[in-house]
From TrEMBL:
InterPro entries: CbiX-like, Sirohydro_Cobaltochel/CbiX. CDD domains: CbiX_SirB_C (cd03414), CbiX_SirB_N (cd03416). It comes from Geobacillus thermodenitrificans. This is Sirohydrochlorin chelatase. Keywords: Lyase, Metal-binding.
Length: 253
């Protein structure tokens, strides 16, 4: 029997875990697979191995692991595979296939545009966007955020899109805010490229509140959140992995 195990980052903020759980309920309603469970990489329960155990206890013989992560960095490349290897040792006959984070995808650009569009002030030729990533020591993080910023600029035709990071990479949040503050743009749309609320979102809010008065108008947009477009991306990924399994089975006969 097939199962889906959704792997969220995890947070000490109960609201963040609740957001993930509510999103998984939306996915369950949209995907016709009998067993679907949620687990977390860190900071919340159940952990990944426990999530696998719960799927197996319900009769799962094959698990599609769906990382609820924005980009492919340390969690996707190391932490999730390591936990799945431990789970595999507990359940040697279990088949586990792992999907990928959302990554650089046109739907992610559309989500950013949707979040900016929720603000009453429209983008114009006096506007810039400051895209704030979580940050990681993995070099792919900066590459991917840079690619997203480029696609965002092309799709919105806004004069300038800049990037900064909350940890591990330059430019830092302070550097990004300083550069935007020194820019010629009247409107600065700040977009937290984050999937859920929590400490990092509070940090951005606090930094913006501390900015000196200037000629600019700062517009803090909502973090990405578990947008309905993500349900479609997950549907596509699960379908692709399921079809790959069926094709492999047919060739093996």
């Amino acid at each position: 029997m097939e199962a889906i195990l959704y792997v969220s980052h995890g947070s000490r903020f109960a609201a963040a875990c609740y957001e993930a759980a509510r999103f998984v309920e939306q996915c369950k309603a949209a995907i016709d697979i009998p067993i679907q469970e949620l687990c977390f990489v860190e900071l919340a329960e159940p952990d990944i191995v426990t999530g696998v155990d719960r799927c197996v206890a319900q009769g799962a013989t094959r698990i599609i692991v769906v990382p609820l992560l924005l980009l492919s960095a340390g969690h996707a490349k190391h932490d999730i595979p390591a936990a799945l290897e431990l789970a595999k040792q507990r359940h040697p006959s279990l088949e586990i296939v792992c999907g990928t984070p959302f990554g650089v995808h046109e739907s992610m650009i559309d989500i950013i545009i949707d979040r900016i569009g929720e603000h009453p002030t429209p983008l114009d030729n006096e506007s810039m966007i400051l895209l704030i990533g979580r940050g990681s020591s993995d070099p792919d993080t900066k590459r991917d955020i840079t690619a997203i910023a480029r696609l965002l600029k092309e799709k919105t035709n806004v004069p300038h899109v800049d990037i900064c990071f909350l940890a591990a990479i330059h430019p830092t949040l302070d550097e990004g805010l300083e550069q935007a503050n020194a820019s010629i743009y009247r409107h600065v749309f700040v977009v937290p490229y984050l999937l859920f609320t929590g400490v990092l979102m509070k940090t951005i809010e606090r930094k913006l509140e501390a900015l000196p008065v200037s000629h600019q108008q700062w517009h803090l947009c909502s973090y990405l959140g578990y947008h309905p477009r993500l349900v479609t991306l997950i549907q596509e990924q699960v379908l692709s992995l399921s079809l790959a399994k069926k094709e492999a089975d047919s060739k093996g006969r």
